[in-house]
Amino acid sequence: MRTRQAQNLSDAVAEAVLDVPGVACLRPGLRGLLRSSATVPTGPAGGHGAGARGAVLVSFGPGGAVSGLRVDVVVRARHQAASTARAVRAAAAAAAAVPPEAVRVNVTGIV
Amino acid sequence: MAMSTPHPREAPDDDEDLEVLACGRDLAEVWERAALAPADDPHTLACAYCRQAVADLEHLRAAALPVAPAPPADLDTSALVRRVMEVVRLELRPGRDLPLGEDDEDSWIYESVAARTLRAAAEEVPGVRAGSCRVTPPGSRTSPARGPVGVRIDITVEYGRDLRSTSRAVRDGLARAARERLGLAVDALDVTVTDLHDPPDRPQEHRT
After folding, report:
1. Is there a domain that residue B7 lies in?
2. Cα end-to-end span (Å), chain B
3. Which residues of chain B have a pLDDT value below 50?
4. Which superkingdom, per the lineage (chain A) (predicted)?
């Protein structure tokens, strides 16, 4: 159940992030891939769900609410990386209905 | 003029991310040299540790590239191989997470990605080739903190260039790239000229 919820949420976040100007693609680094392959929901106390092939990681708090998002992106060189990351944060937060403080953005490449 | 052979650098005590071979060279630097000019570095040719490291990289390259029919004669496969190996190296050694943007944001960038941008900025200065570039965030290796980073870059400069003005131009270029291309706050920027190199139209002098 939670896995499907996480998948839907991460798909929605991925779609929103890909619309941000300056985002080339979503791409997890090796660490993200390993984390997503090793992720197992941990029951009612909390858990994780990875989507968009590991580039969007959703964390759930004890009450089942989303407690955190991690998004790995590759950005375009003609945009400033920090500004793009900032816009990604805002877009991801809006898509997941969480405050921006709950979103961590990692720039894993520049093209 | 005979150019000096770069000597292995001592790994700084605080730089836990360097993977130093038994001969004293940084693994990433050995791989970079091998990718750029495999037969140009006498040390690599003579050193068993460096040769083994390059061979390991070749194994990775073979594993990463799918078996494919022979490419057309006019296809530049070396560019493709360079690109693939760049990705492999980046994936294997992303480096630390560096803080991007303001202190209250939670945006980060891999050290290897930032370093590549900074090295490219350094090489925009005429007569400069960039070598190792390390970017150090505040905090520890395992939990980097937010705040301005320190940048340390090694360069070689074309023989005949004014070192002081060239170094200054590199510093200005790095500061500008960090600010405008990355949005990375920098509080220390160290540029070290490690060697001189011949101008492109002048053949390298070979030593026996």
Report:
1. no
2. 14
3. 1-17, 207-208
4. Bacteria
Task: Decide if A82 touches B, using CB distance below 8 A.
Answer: yes
Judged by CB atoms closer than 8 Å, whether chains meet at A81 and B180 is answered as no
Report the alpha-carbon distance of residue B185 to residue B175 in Å, rounded.
9
Q: Note down the domain range covering A27.
A: 2-110
Cβ pair A85, A98 in contact under 8 A: no
Nearby residues of B29 by Cβ (< 8 Å), 6 or more positions away:
B131, B132
Tokens at B18, concatenated: 């360097």
Beta strands in chain A (DSSP E): 23-26, 47-51, 56-60, 66-75, 103-110
Phi first, then psi: give them for residue B46, nearest 5 degrees.
Answer: -95, -20
User: Per-residue pLDDT tens for B146-162?
Assistant: 999 999 999 999 999 99
Q: pTM to 2 decimals? A: 0.66
Residues B99 and B107 sit within 8 Å (Cβ to Cβ): yes
A-chain residues within 8 Å CB-CB of B184?
A: 81-82
